[in-house]
Amino acid sequence: MRKSFFILLFVFAINHSKAQDISQIIAGSLADANKYATEYMRPFAEGEINNLSKGWFSTARTHKFLGFDISINGQFAIIPTEKQNFTFNNADYSTMKLNDIGSSASLPTMMGGTSSQMINVNSTVNGQAASTSFTAPKGIGDDLKKNLSFLPISTPLPVVQIGIGLLKHTDFKLRYFPKSGAGGNVEIGVFGLAVQHEFSNYLPFIKKVPFLHLSALVGYSKIDASFKPNLNNGSSVQSTNSSAGYNISAFTLQGIATVKFSLLELYTAVGYSSGTSAINLNGDYTITYNTGLPAPNNNQTTVTKKDPIALNYKSNGITNTWGVRLNLTILKVYADYTFANYNTVGVGIALAVR
């Protein structure tokens, strides 16, 4: 099952490699650092909320008693072009300013590309004026284009779940992975539960159309992930106990319809999804500044900041899914597209026993 997390681990690995660049923003005031980080992380955080609420179904049909399925699917929330960058305005920040004559600039979000824009930080440290500078953090967009070139820029999320028929016309679905090391310094834990009930048999007119099935689904899932970036090498921001935490939770309510042919099945759903995500950078961080004073007082000064970043996001709205499934005896292969706050592509396979 651990291998099914390869896409998510890929994203975390990129984050890990860029963590030193991203950490530079905490050289500014905590208010400025959190303002910058909020916009930088927004498309990733909101995209993953949308991903987590998806992938619960590929048919409106439910299992017979003790029938079951095991499925693996990938969800890819497409990042709109306008959310691959954000506008940095000097007027919005007290300690951070662009290192040129301009008062604003378009900078990459986490899902964007590269930038050579320098940002100056001017603050008061230990009672004296101090300064430093950093290059605007890069996004992972170029890495995604290289490694997932068959998709537009997207936040990926793999989902593994099982479903079983325990009550008449009712499936219970479970996502579970105990939080544990999943490679390197990364830890991931997953839990999710959904109930799907088919009500086709309650409607007399549906009984006359045996290839049409209707059901409703309600589901909740969450992910708790963390990793430990290496911030102990030649940088103006260093830490020996840094830890980045990421928590997502998502709720969804869906009405599902399926038209089943011999081998082919078409499905659609309309519903509502909502969720939250929290991103935290914890630990003690020592930032080194230049005093800018003439010799012999041109020494550097340092300050330590504790748990500097705490970000929270929400995303909700109506969703509309359209998909197709190929039924090859017990093997099911499916793909769908969801219209939502972040349109989402889903692909998956399942082993199902009715």
Describe this structure in words.
With 354 residues, the protein is mostly beta strands. The protein has one domain. It has helices spanning 6-23, 30-52, 141-147, 204-207; strands at residues 68-78, 85-89, 96-98, 104-108, 118-125, 128-135, 154-167, 170-183, 186-198, 212-227, 237-238, 243-260, 264-282, 284-290, 300-306, 309-328, 331-339, 344-353. The protein contains four helices and 18 strands. The protein is elongated, with a radius of gyration of 24 Å. The longest helix is centred in the N-terminal third of the chain and has 23 residues, at 30-52. Residues 1-7 have low confidence and may be disordered. The strands form four sheets. It has a ten-stranded antiparallel β-barrel with strand order 1-7-8-9-10-12-13-16-17-18. The protein has a three-stranded antiparallel sheet with strand order 3-5-6, with no helix packed on it. It has a three-stranded antiparallel sheet with strand order 11-14-15, with no helix packed on it.
Radius of gyration: 24 Å
- Low-confidence segments, given as residue ranges, are 1-7
Total number of strands: 18
Instruction: Describe the largest sheet.
Output: 10 strands, antiparallel, barrel
Oligomer: single chain
Helix count equals: 4
Percent helix: 10-25%
Query: Strand arrangement, largest sheet?
Result: 1-7-8-9-10-12-13-16-17-18
Total domain units: 1
